[in-house]
Amino acid sequence: MSLKNKCVVVTGGSRGLGLGLVEALVDEGAKVWVVARNTGDLEKVRIRLGVETVSADITDASAANSILSDVHPQVLVLNAGAVPRMARLDCTSWEDFTATWDTDVKGGLYWMQAALNLPLAPGSRVLVSSSGAAEQGSPMSGGYGGAKRMLWLMAKYANGLSEQKGLDIRFQAIVPRQMVAGTGVGGAGSSAYALAMGIEQEAFLERYPAMPPRQFGNHVVRVLTDATYETALAIGIRGDTGITVLEEQAA
């Protein structure tokens, strides 16, 4: 699959991990729409990369429906999410524990529903941002690991509905298995775990190097353009080892 002139919507694409992906997509010749809340960040991306931008909250169901109805993307990347509130299980509030459920999972539900109910065109692909925490947990980040596992499961559920409805829309979970540098999640996680280990954040990152956002973006572009990954349900990404199929679609 070539991405040249393909319409791609990326939520949370104005900074960090999402911006790395947007840069990679633009270099492939895709026509990119970036959805985020911060108008200042959006304007910087629009000027530098020549993309279209939309200011919206991913947890607004009407925005999801409106944007997908207007743009009709062939690829939708659900990347936006909240930075988890870092604390040990015995020291966290319910509000902090569920923050990523209220943003990541809620937003994922609305955008996946919009993709199924509009629906997107046959052959469209929806990439849902999960996390390595969905595999092994993340004891300092509250309900983050569970939220990211739920998004993985929701992609699986959405595929079943796409098949039942004869839509030919493929949903795939993208699972970064390494912290990503320069992101809110990566910064919060590396800081909290360094503190728990009694070392400086710089020492933690030397021990557990982070993946550059652009490297992540390059790997996702390969997922979209290499037929090897076309039918996978969950795809793991690391900067050092590249791409791994974690779960195939059910036959």
UniProtKB/TrEMBL annotation:
Instruction: Name the InterPro entries on file.
Output: NAD(P)-bd_dom_sf, SDR_fam
Keywords assigned by UniProt? Oxidoreductase
Oxidoreductase among keywords: yes
What Pfam families does this protein's entry cite? adh_short (PF00106)
**Superkingdom of source:** Bacteria
Asked if the keyword Oxidoreductase belongs to this entry, the reply reads yes
- What PANTHER family would the database entry show? BENZIL REDUCTASE (PTHR43008), CHAIN DEHYDROGENASE, PUTATIVE (AFU_ORTHOLOGUE AFUA_4G08710)-RELATED (PTHR43008:SF4)
- Family to which this protein belongs: Belongs to the short-chain dehydrogenases/reductases (SDR) family.
Q: What is this protein called?
A: SDR family oxidoreductase
Which organism's genome codes for this protein? Rhizobium calliandrae
